[in-house]
Design a protein that fits this description.
It is a single chain. The chain is α/β, with parallel strands linked by helices. It has 2 domains: 170 residues, P-loop containing nucleotide triphosphate hydrolases (Rossmann fold); 78 residues, no CATH class. Helix content is 36%, strand content 25%. A 6-stranded mixed sheet has the order 6-7-8-3-9-10, sandwiched between helices. The chain has a 4-stranded antiparallel sheet with strand order 2-1-4-5, covered by helices on one side. Strand 1 and strand 2 form a beta hairpin. Helix 3 crosses helix 5 and helix 3 packs parallel to helix 6. The longest helix has 14 residues. The protein starts with 7 loop residues before the first strand and ends in a 5-residue tail after the last helix.
Length: 257
Amino acid sequence: MGVGTGNTVLKVDGVTKTFGGLRALDDLNLTIEEGTVHAIIGPNGAGKSTMLNVCIGQLKPDTGTVTFDGEVITGKQPFEINQAGVSRVFQTPAIFEDLSVLQNVMIPAIAHRDGKFKLNPFSILEKQDDIEGRAVEILERLRLTELMDKHAGSMSRGNKRRLELAMCLVQQPRLLLLDEPTAGMSRHDTNRTIDILKQIKEGGMTKVIIEHDMHVVFSVADRISVLARGHIIAEGTPDEIKGNPVVQEAYLGGSVE
C-alpha cells in the first residue's frame, strides 16, 4: 500500500457540470493526497468519467476549479495538463494500432519531452536511444517485452490495456488517472493488472482509479471515495467503506464481500 505524504496533489473544488437538464457533477469536492492510490466508485451515471474529463481538460466545468500541484489547471488544454504531469489510461485503449508495441511506448515519451510535434512518427523515433531504453524498461515491468516488435493492433484486449498503461508510465507522471483499468479483462488478466498496479511505486506516483470491480478496488486502494448523483457521499479507507451502511445501501446493494 502506498503511504501518503500529507500533501494535496489534486483538489476538485465546487465543480458543477450540466449536460442539457442533467447535472452530472453537483458541487463536487475531492482531495487526492500525494503518494496514495485513491479509488472512486459509484453506480453508472454517478459522474465518474465526467469528473476525470474535467480533471484532464477535456471538459470545462460550469463552476468550480481543479488544482494540480498547487496550480489551477481549469481552462488549460489537455496537452498542457499532460505536460504538467497528469496522465490518463482510457476505458477504451488509445493506442497506435499500426505501430509496434515499442514505438507506441516511445511516442508519448517524446511528446511529453518535446510538447506537440507534427513530424512523421517514424522519423522522430530514430536515434532516441535514451527514450527507447526507458520504454524497454517499462515494457519489462509490465511483462510485455516478448510482444515488443509486434503490431499493437494484433494484441489481446488485456495486453492493449497494459500497453496503454506503459504509454502513461513512460511519461513519469506525478498523477496517473485510470478509468476502469480492468474493464473487459478475464480474471487472470485482472489479477495480473492488480499485481502491476501494486508494483508501481515510481517516485511516489499518485493514482486515481475509477473501477467497478470491488476485488480490484479493495486490493489496491489506500482511500476510497463513493460518488453518487454527482457528489461524494462517503470517503474512507477500504475497511471503513466496506462497513459503511450508507455505501452498502446506495451503491453495493447490501453487504460488501
